[in-house]
Amino acid sequence: MRRQEDKGRSQEVQLLLAERPRNRFVRGSLYLLLALIMVSWTFGDLQVDELFSTHRLRNLNRFLSEVRPFPLHGKEWDWGVALSWAQEIFKREGLEATLSTLGISVVAILLAGFFGSLMALPAARNLACSEPFLPEIRPPPLRARVFYALLAPVTRFALILLRAIPEYIWAFILLAVMGPSAWPAIVALAIHNTGILGRLQAETVENVNPNPLSALRGLGGKRSQLAAVGLLPLLLPRGLLYLFYRWETCVREATVLGMLGFSSLGFWITDARARLQYDRFLFFVLLGAAVVLIGDFISAFLRRIVRKA
Amino acid sequence: MILCLMIAFVWAYSHLGLRGEDLHPSSGGLKVLGEFAARALTPALTSEADFVPEGTRPLLYIALSSARTTLFFAAAGMSLGLFLGIVLGFFSSTSWWAGDFGGVRRSSPSRILGRVLFPVLYGGSRVIINLMRSTHEVLWAVLFLTAFGLSNTAAVLAIAIPYGGTLAKIFSEMVDETTREPAHALRGAGASGLQTYSFALVPQALPDMIGYSFYRFECALRSSAILGFFGFPTLGLFIRQSFSSLNYGEVWTFLYVLLGMVLIFDWWSGAVRRRLAP
User: Fold this and answer.
1) What is the C-alpha separation between B186 and A163, in angstroms, rounded?
2) How many CB pairs under 8 A join A and B?
3) Is residue B110 part of a domain?
């Protein structure tokens, strides 16, 4: 009796196992990814043990000895001296670099937010169609039909192109075009994030509750009026969440983009490295980490406010 | 809120000393832009250098092999990052030890374990995650470059560390957001913390975790290409070289290869996520 019950139960388990949600595509993708990882470790010319060969370790030793703050070279560690050394660098270059890093990220993300929201409208399939939010009564003229059939896919593809090229490459090319100022970094960050925010916003537009918008449209509202009056208040909270979330990444990238020669933290990192002043180099890397942590904290704080409101 | 954002914008704008007219490229810049854009539709298929040393590989071979290196660095870095992310994600998720699990009757040593050890592990792994994440992969790469010298392993580590931190953070958040009933059932049947975590909590979050990993893979590809700008043999190295030798056609060739790879992965990760969505 007991055994039979067990058997029935194991059959149930077998049935559950057989009916578990499976997807051949996902499964194949996972296997493919696994194969790729294995291939990359075997043929990727990665010699892990080589990293610990004698000349590498000699490099590491030299680095570690020179990474001590300059006034303390060859002396006992003294927090007072180290701190006053750090303070001096911070006053001389660090503060200015920190502020301009934050400034670049703020200008860039707000520009990206603005253009991203603008581009989200033609990228949303429910707005960029011949009769948004209402059933079609009569078929629109051919020109309008072709226009609206192309509008959303073309905008979406443009957004993909904007975000497929990394910020660093945008900035690298723009630097040659615009000359040295903070603009290339800002524009590069803004372009990449416009691509990302535009897509996220377009998805929010597509998932919006259509009823108020249908009513507005039924009263004869134009698309621009729908967007300004109906969509904006519905999108704002989520848009702000995305904005702050991307701002975190912007701060990270703004630090790094300075390496191309803008006055953010990255500039001082490359500068110190080029002068072989490893102590200053490490100081600026750590300062960058601190700035990113502060940025994360501010962003989390602002997102909490938005979520509560 | 909007007002604050506007004030922030104005402050940042004035602090950076930005001027609208600087946004317009100079005449020299316009020339570069024109020459660069003119080659967009005619990427180079052979090397454009005036002097090609004997034994140089053909351009397309360089493009494809650097694309391969880019892909391999991304995959290797991502695999290490996934490992770090899974291990640290376990320690930095609270759902397998905190909350109502304290109420289960336990012997005193394990109660001490639950009260002291797990919170300490949790805090420690949170700190580690944030330290890993706070430094950009490029900075990790430069740090390793300065400490060890040029080495492919350094590039992989540079990708793995920040990605591991991010994956751990996201994984733990995804796991902590799942419903707790299955975990309570397993816990009541006597399962350990690790068993509860891996058989009751993770399976619910697994689709999200897989989808997110695919997305991060796409990001890793971009990061890996960027690392080339610092001397690693990925696409960035050749983009930089060709651009500074004014061989814009070659730049476009490399850009198209990169763009193609990223677009394929964009489609792939999107397709996987669509199929995983409930």
Assistant:
1) 44
2) 198
3) yes
Chain B neighbors of A242, CB-CB under 8 A: none
Which residues span the domain enclosing A174?
A: 80-308
Asked if the structure places residue B72 within a domain, the reply is yes
Residue A85 lies in a domain: yes
Q: Is residue A255 part of a domain?
A: yes
Contacts of B148 in chain A (CB under 8 A): 51, 56, 59-60
Q: What's the number of domains chain A is made of?
A: 1
Q: How far apart are CA B93 and CA B198, in angstroms?
A: 12
Give the ipTM of the model, two decimals please.
0.83
Restricting to B residues 214-243, those with a Cβ less than 8 Å away from any Cβ of A are 214, 217, 222-223, 225-226, 229, 236, 239-240, 243
pTM of the model: 0.85
- In this complex, is the C-beta atom of B156 within 8 Å of any C-beta atom belonging to chain A? yes
In a domain, B44, yes or no: no
Query: What six digits make up the tokens of A123?
Result: 């990228």
- Per the listing, tokens 């043990």 go with A49
> In this complex, do A289 and B131 lie within 8 Å of one another by their Cβ atoms?
yes
Interface-testing mutation among A43, A62, A107, A157, with chain B (most B C-beta atoms within 10 A): A107
A-chain residues within 8 Å CB-CB of B210? 26, 30
C-beta separation of A264 from A227 below 8 A? no
Amino acid at B208: D
One pLDDT digit (tens) per residue for chain A, 309 residues: 566 667 777 888 888 888 777 788 888 899 999 999 988 888 777 777 777 777 888 888 888 877 777 777 767 777 777 888 888 888 888 888 888 888 889 999 999 999 999 898 888 887 877 777 777 777 778 888 888 888 888 999 999 888 888 989 999 888 888 877 888 889 999 999 999 999 998 888 888 888 888 888 888 777 888 888 878 888 888 888 899 989 989 999 999 998 888 778 888 888 888 888 888 888 889 999 999 999 889 988 888 888 887
